[in-house]
Amino acid sequence: MRKAATQARRSALTLAAFAATATLLLAGTWLATHQQVAANEAATRAALLAQALPAGSFDNNLAASAVPLPAAIAQQLAQRDAANIYLARQHGQLSGVVLEAAAPNGYGGRIELLVGIARNGTVQGVRVVSHRETPGLGDYIDLAVSPWARQFAGKPADSHWAVKKDGGDTDYVSGATISARAVSAAVARCSDYYRTAQARLLQGQP
Amino acid sequence: MSNTPSVWQDISRKGLWQQNPGLVQLLGLCPVLAISNNVVNALALGLATTLVTALSSATVSSVRHWVPHDIRNPVFIMIIASLVTCVDLAMNAWLHELYLVLGIFIPLITTNCIVMARAEAFASRQPVREAAWDGTMMGLGLTGVLVALGALRELLGKGTLLAGADKLLGPAGQQLTLQLAGPDYQFLLMLLPPGAFLGLALLIAGKNVLDARARQRAAAAANLAPHAEASPAP
Hints:
- The complex is a heterodimer.
- Chain A is of the alpha+beta class.
- Chain A has 3 helices and 5 strands.
- In chain A, β3 (93-106) and β4 (109-118) form a beta hairpin.
- The longest helix of chain A has 50 residues, at 2-51.
- Chain B has one domain.
């Protein structure tokens, strides 16, 4: 009995010692990397943001131009309570907007998007910020994987946003239609929002 | 075990061929099936797994005298999970491009049975250098299977080889991509999970054929001696 208790105590102490060492190792690695990781993520986001509108179509700092969308519109475009709109300006005039949007109905869940729309309502760029589509199949929506997302550039507001299979204009990869359908529908919602809110947005009011 | 050079050779031969984790032990099938739809992802995940297996085997081996037998599994799991998290954080910080591609799969290395299996079966009983070598060779054996399966599936499924090599090697990698079929060519079965099962079955069958042929040749070389394999044991 006594021997078993001693052994159990020894095991528990060893395990605790290993857990403490592992914690120290992880904490050290996190401290060494977290600033770099945060900088990388900010840089990736800023790069995506700049790609959503054509280079040279704005001269302000896009990342700093964020204005929160009203809760009802954030809910409609991004299915969450808070989302931003970025107001691009050229010589002080509104030249376009970038919307934080989301498609809730991707094959693997939410697809977070940035949708850039020029002042006249044409869609300029669609970039996937994060997604969980099937690797090697549905991930073609990501520009890092395939140029699929470029097809939205220059599409006017009255385009047929649906995928070709559903009678629209959007290309898709067979076997992974759900991903393309979800992104197209999200882009359509952004385009509709811009059309209805254009007059207000020109005053800087989302 | 007295003849030192042959120990290293023996470990390499076992890891790369005789006990290949992908073809013989059939361990770590989750990443083998999920990531092997193109060569670049397969290679990158294979190398990351090799790094983790080597590190974890060396660590497990160096602490083996202090770990009581009955709590060795929780300790090994803790070591492996910590190492994977460190590799995950380090890649996120210093290899961010690659991390964006492989991000979801790096944490999954923890659940890859081959890492745990080598810790339990080899590293917990052997000196540090042998254990590290064993981890490296087992990892490379798995990488070989992943790359072969990735090449097979990418070729049959999409008609390309090394698509997306620029993610691994920078812009120069783009020229490595081989387009061997029309851009519209697609054979979905090979890209989806069933293709991984079929491809893996073909690779295992191929290895068995090669092994059988090698045995036959060995038997023929020992020609007049009675067939050790054919005659039933007394």
